[in-house]
Structures are given as structure tokens and as C-alpha cells.
Amino acid sequence: MELAYIPSPSRGVLHLGPIPLRGYAFCIIIGVFVAVWLGNKRWIARGGRAGTVADIAVWAVPFGLVGGRLYHVITDYELYFSEGRDWVDAFKVWEGGLGIWGAIALGAVGAWIGCRRRGIPLPAYADAIAPGIALAQAIGRWGNWFNQELYGRPTDLPWALKITSSTDGRIPGTYHPTFLYESLWCVGVAFLVIWADRRFTLGHGRAFALYVAAYCVGRGWIEYMRVDDAHHILGLRLNDWTALIVFLLAVVYIVVSAKKRPGREAEVEPGAGPEGEGGPEGDGGTEAQADGEAEDKADGEAGDKTDADHEAGDTAEDTAAGRTEDTAAAETDTESDAEDASDASDAKAADRTESAGKKS
Fold first, then answer.
1. CB contact at 8 A, 183 and 138
2. 69, 106, 145, 325: least buried by Cβ within 10 Å?
3. What 8-state DSSP symbol labels residue 7?
4. Distance CA 215, CA 185 (A)
5. pLDDT-derived band of residue 34, with 50, 70 and 90 as boundaries?
6. Of 130-144, 162-176, 309-323, 327-341, where does the model show the most confidence?
7. Of residues 180 and 80, which shows the higher confidence score?
8. Which DSSP symbol is given to 85?
9. How far is Cα 280 from Cα 36, in angstroms, rounded to an integer?
């Protein structure tokens, strides 16, 4: 007897007139917005400009969607190219089917293009958005709930997922809600990366590598519980092998990077002030600041020139006044000399008169 279970939605799409509103698509879109929002906060805290994460996401998100779809179509090609299947369905992303491995790989290519255009190191950007990506996955997994897909083995646990659809080989019943397990695991990964980044000051891509390694651990045991069709190699599902290989690569990167490039980047975005002083204007803020500095410099030079002119004028006035004083002094001296000469002449004349009187 089923005491409790998680119900599945009766349908995964609502219609607003002729416009279909799909639950799977909404989950993906909300996840992207959360990733950009959290990534932007972390980027500013690292010293970058507000808005840079969103600008680069314009490149990363489309590449990621294409990569995720390509990985799914390639690894499950029989769903689209086998007999009785329509290959056009490979383009119907809204019906589900995005491989996280392809999404991260090709999304990284898009992020690299965006980072290169802005002169930003890709590892620093990846560190900033790593927890946001994990949260985006946690939200995106609920799209599988809307589509009643990617569940686990049958179970009668109180949190079992009730599957009601019988299309595409589904058998109605209660199953392990592996979408919920992975969603909760991704939330834990996000908090783990945030904590470790603060505790150990991770840099040069190590926070992103930690996210990858932690996600792979969870994906390994969750993938093992799933019952949907998949390719197997040596008894393990293909995604289990992928998770194992990617986990090892992430761990090796963390170890090697910590030895070669310890610590964190001193600068993550050229021209950005501390704590993202560049502001949302981005390059425009920098140009305005440069214009302000140029105006201040011009004003300073004009002030210096005016001061110099004043000093030159004062000097000229002082010089002219000095010359006037010297001329007046010289004229006074000349007059004194003339008076002295006149007095001397009068004295001689008096002496001569006196001498003539004595002789008489």
C-alpha cells in the first residue's frame, strides 16, 4: 500500500493562447538567471565589474545548450536515427535531453571567447560562476520532473516518485526520484564550493575544479540508480565512466595547479577598481573616469599657467618699481652733489674776498 509519494505533474506544458509554456524550459531559464546572478556577486567580490558575468554568459549559454544537446544526441543516437524515429526530434530541446558533460565542455568554449574579448582569464571567471552552475543544475533537474523522465529503480519509500505516463516505454508506478537526489546534491556542491573558496582562498580555476569533482561523485551513484536506457561499458553506464574520468582529471588539476600557481589572482579584470568600482557602466565608466582625469589635468595646467603669468607680472612690476626707486635715488644724489659743489664755490669766493680785504 502506497502511504506517500511525490506526485508527477499531469502535463509538462501549458498553453497561453498559441504560445506553449513548457516546464522544462522554465527550469533551464530560471537556472541560468540564478547562475548569472550569483556569479555576478562573486565576480564583483573578486574585484571585477558588475555586468561582466552576464556579458560573457551571452556567449557561454548558447554554446552550452548546443553542447549539451549534441552530447545527448550522440550518446543516445538511436532515439533519433534508428528505424521508425524522426531525426527532426533531435532539435526539440524543449522535450528534454541535455547532457551536462557536453554543456560544460562547449559552454567553456563560449566562455573562453567572451573572456578573450574582454581580456579576462578564463580560470578566474570559472571560479566565480562555479557555485552558480551547480545551482542552475539543481533547478534544471526539476525539468525532468515535469517531463516524467530520468527516474530510478522501483521503490515504495515515502519520497518515491509517482510516474503516471506510459508513453515511450514508461511503466506507471513509484520509483526513486533521482532528479530530486541530483538536485539536492547540486545544492550541496554549491555550498561546498562557496565554503571552500572562502576557507582556502581558491584561485586559478581550482574552485571550478572542486565543483566538477564533487558533482562527479554524486553523479556516479545517482547514475547507477537510473533505469532509463543507456550504453554500458564493462557493466557500467557510459555516464558513470564519464563521471569517473572527469573526476580524476579535476583532482589532478587541483593538485598540480596548487603547486604551480598557489593563491588567487591579484587582478581578475583589467581596469576594474577594487570591489568592482567600474560599476555597471563597464568600459563607459572607465572612459568617463579618464575624461574626468583629463579635464582635471587641463584645469590644473591652466591654473599653473595663470599662476605663472601672475608671478611674471608681479616680477615685472617689482623690477619696474626697483628701477624707479634707483633712478630717484640717483637723481637725489646728483642734486646733493650739485649743492655741495655750489657751497664749495661760495666758500672759495668768500675766502678770496676776505684775503683781498686784509691786503687792503
1. yes
2. 325
3. P
4. 8
5. very high
6. 130-144
7. 180
8. -
9. 14
Q: Which residue has the higher pLDDT, 301 or 210?
A: 210
* CA separation for the pair 98, 141 (Å, rounded): 10
Based on its alpha-carbon atoms, the radius of gyration of the chain, rounded to whole angstroms, reads 43
Q: E strands, 46-122, where? A: none
Judge whether 269 and 47 are in contact, CB under 8 Å: yes
Angle ∠(157,159,163) on CA atoms, nearest 5: 95
DSSP symbol at 94: G
Tell me the residue type at 168: D
Check whether 351 has a pLDDT greater than 80.
no
Neighbours of 263 (CB within 10 A): 10
- What percentage of residues in the chain have a pLDDT greater than 90? 56
- DSSP states along 20-63: EEEHHHHHHHHHHHHHHHHHHHHHHHTT--TTHHHHHHHHHHHH
Average the pLDDT over 234-261 and give the result. Answer: 95
∠ Cα 79 84 85 (to 5°): 35
Q: How far is CA 108 from CA 21, 42, 55, 208, 307, in A?
A: 29, 18, 14, 11, 58
69 band by pLDDT with thresholds 50, 70 and 90: very high
Q: Is the pLDDT of residue 106 over 80?
A: yes
> Against a cut of 0.90, is the pTM above it?
no
Assigned C-alpha cell, 181: 537526489
CA distance 313 to 320: 11
Mean pLDDT across the chain: 81
Convert the pLDDT of each residue in 151-183 to its tens digit: 999 999 999 999 998 887 789 999 999 999 999
Q: Is the dihedral of CA 142, 143, 146, 148 positive or negative?
A: negative
CA distance 247 to 24: 28
Three-state DSSP class for residue 233 = strand
Q: Residue 338, class by beta-carbon neighbours within 10 Å (0-12 exposed, 13-18 middle, 19+ buried)?
A: exposed
- How far is 144 from 99, CA to CA, in rounded Å? 12
The dihedral of CA 62, 65, 67, 73: what is its sign?
negative
- 165-201 burial, b for 16+ CB within 10 Å, e for fewer? eeeeeeeebbbbbbbbbbbebbbebbebbbebbeeee
Q: Hey, what's the cell of 156?
A: 515504495
